[in-house]
TrEMBL record:
UniProt name for this protein: Metalloendopeptidase
Class in the EC hierarchy, top level: hydrolase
Obligatory cofactor(s): Zn(2+)
EC id: 3.4.24.-
This protein's UniProt keywords: Hydrolase, Metal-binding, Metalloprotease, Protease, Signal, Zinc
Organism (species): Orchesella dallaii
């Protein structure tokens, strides 16, 4: 029995971490439980931001990187191939968030040393701890995906599958081990994100460290379905670090919209048939996180799944755009399908089946007697170049799938810029 267990543990872990031996995939538990040697008190006031679908450390106790600027050093243990993976991981943050990884310069005190350590799959200090800290990857885990995960820890992110409410989304029955639930320093809110890069894999054949999804149509989790940051990882980081520009939109909980949130709702001229302004919402439904039409009266999100019109009331989020639609020339607007690009479109959710990301589509349907029904729905794409697919739009008179629609987008308006000289 003893032999069996000793044989099984590294083997099962190896499946999760792609074949490395003697590996450890998590941060040490002492780093996750508010160990006083690395605990920092940044402020006694201020608020913990609502961060959708992501688990992160209470920012009273842990230090974020000021202005999202993370100083790094590349350790001599890294091979040229490792450095390529590390740079891909940096690029993932640089293209989707306001986080900047900046090379160490003379005089920089706090920095993340990026290291290779073949005794681990990946491990990193959580938040900025002061002075030297590391993010390590090793063995066959030396990939962009592992490094995006470890750098998530550097930025204060915790594990999604250790959220306090994870038992509503995962089962660990008949799993080899059950990771703890972190209840002490964690803030756990928002839509559960099976695709978060901070979620361990949920393969049926591995040690089951990421648990088994209980939501139907969710087949796997974390890096098994997302090589980089998930849509909700990006939203969470942009909220945690108060990112601006085209990363200033925030998905807010429908059940607790504040007056300030309401002032940041925009309907782009879209009204329901009884004159209520229409806003985008998103919710988990059928294994996906989908954009739909928000119904303020019932705080529900109406989502189209082919012919089925689904009304979700749990964990609905509504899109807010703080700072007006045109803020320092960073302009949110609707763009026609033909002119829209996934590079500038606002992502709302993702499919759990594959790499597809869902964006926010606006369209109108002419019904009987010349009545027009306006709708907000989703359009999926996996390419980075264009929107080639029909949108999936909810409508009381029957869902519709237009090839002509508009996509909510944001870009830096150069004409506006030129007015500032
Ligand atoms: C490599 O990882 C192992 C296991 O966590 C640790 O004991 C060792 O100190 C690490 N090596 C370095 C150089 O950090
Ligand atoms: Zn981790």
């Amino acid at each position: 029995m003893g032999i069996l267990i000793h044989f099984l543990i590294p083997l099962l872990l190896a499946n999760f971490c792609s074949g490395s031996t003697n590996i450890r995939c998590s941060v040490p538990s002492s780093w996750l439980s508010g160990n006083p040697t690395i605990q920092r008190s940044t402020s006694s006031s201020g608020h913990v931001p609502y961060v959708s679908g992501i688990n992160f450390y209470n920012t009273y106790l842990w230090t974020k990187w000021p202005k999202g600027k993370v100083t790094y050093k590349l350790d001599a243990t890294l091979t040229a191939a490792d450095i390529i993976e590390v740079r891909k991981a940096f690029n993932e943050y640089h293209t989707k968030t306001c986080i900047q990884f900046l090379p160490w310069e003379q005089g920089d005190v706090d920095f993340v040393n990026i290291e290779r350590n073949d005794s681990v799959c990946g491990v990193a200090h959580v938040c900025k701890i002061g002075g030297y800290q590391f993010a390590q990857f090793g063995g066959n885990c030396r990939t962009m995906s592992t490094m995006v995960h470890e750098l998530g820890h550097s930025l204060c992110l915790g594990h999604e599958h250790q959220r306090e409410d994870r038992d509503e989304h995962l089962t660990y029955s008949s799993c080899h081990q059950t990771p703890s639930k972190d209840t002490h320093n964690w803030v756990t809110k928002g839509i559960y994100d099976y695709r978060s890069i901070m979620h361990y894999w949920c393969d049926a054949n591995n040690a089951c460290l990421g648990g088994r999804p209980t939501q139907s149509n969710v087949n796997n989790c974390g890096g098994a379905v997302t090589t980089g940051l998930s849509v909700m990882d990006v939203d969470g980081i942009n909220s945690l670090y108060n990112c601006q520009g085209c990363t200033r939109h925030r998905w807010r909980p429908a059940q607790s919209l504040t007056q300030a949130d309401r002032e940041n709702l925009y309907n782009f001229g879209y009204y329901s048939q009884n004159g209520a302004p229409l806003y985008p919402c998103r919710a988990a439904s059928r294994g996906e996180v989908s954009a739909g039409t928000f119904d303020d009266a019932t705080k529900s999100c109406k989502i189209s799944h082919g012919q089925d019109l689904v009304t979700i009331t749990d964990n609905v989020e509504v899109l807010t755009i703080p700072g007006s639609l045109n803020w320092f020339c960073y302009k949110y607007e609707l763009v026609s399908r033909a002119a829209a690009s996934p590079r500038t479109a606002i992502p709302a959710g993702s499919s759990n089946w594959d790499k597809w990301v869902g964006y926010i589509a606006y369209a109108s349907k002419s019904g009987t007697g010349g009545v027009t029904e306006r709708s907000i729905g989703k359009v999926w794409t996996w390419t980075h170049s264009s929107f080639g697919y029909s949108a999936d739009m909810p409508a009381a008179s029957g869902n519709f799938f237009p090839s002509e629609y508009q996509v909510l987008s944001c870009h830096l308006d150069s004409q506006c810029m030129s007015m500032f000289g």
